[in-house]
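Working notes for the structural subgroup meeting. M.R. asked for a predicted model of this chain before we commit to crystallization trials. I am recording the input and output together here so anyone reviewing the notebook later can reproduce the run.

Input as submitted:
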Amino acid sequence: MGRTGVFTSLGNESNLDDGKDDFLILKADVSDPDVSKAAATSFLLEVKKFHQNQTITVEGNTSSLGTVRTILMTNASPSQAVNFALLGGSKKSKKKAGSAKKTAKSGSKKATKVKGSKKTTRKSVANKGAKTKRRKSASKAARKNET
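Returned structure, recorded in token form:
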């Protein structure tokens, strides 16, 4: 069974806080509890490259050693769940970030309009240049006809 929560480590101990319980993570294939703690921490930090306060999913069975809740970990992976604590602590901060995106989008539309108007200006300048060339050509032809 997989548990998703915030990963922390201190020394040779790793913990997973799922918001309800705080679990000590042990490596499932190691029988000695002290070695199992160190093996789990090493696996999560060095093999999986997880960092402090990252939201992860730990696969394994939950159990207890006395009063301490444990997970006998078989594998772990980064979680797809959003860690709102890292985003500012609430869902509202995420919505505010979304509204900021809308503002940025509307700003880019204005930029597009500005670019579009520059293109129009460039076209009109190019057309004026072409008209001027045609006029000069016509006046040269008229001068030749006069002679």
